[in-house]
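Lab notes, practical 5.
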Amino acid sequence: MSANLHFTSEEREKVLKSYFRNGLNGPLETFPSKEKRKLIIATELIKRFNKETLYTEKEVNDILKKIYPDFATIRRFFIDNGFMCRSEDGKSYWIEGENSGSSMEPEGGAVHSHS
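Output from the prediction step:
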């Protein structure tokens, strides 16, 4: 994962309460503009994905749509910040590294960022 995830549990709790007003299982009110807040939100949202599963883009979108209408922004943030990996052909998504107990990588290799 990129970015240093340096935040206190108090910061995390405050951000999550502000952005998930109906609780962590509810929708995201808005995707924050500040990087640190985005990282806190993404760290929570990635938990909704199974670390042992290979997802299609549609499956990723379907999970994220339930959380936030602009699901593509969150999906892109996941990829750009190393929360999720994507195959070069864009057909497969998965979690690896410090977020996962497995190292799934489909044929064709992984794209970790679009910077």
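Observations recorded by the TA: Residues 9-111 form one domain. The two ends are 14 Å apart (CA to CA).
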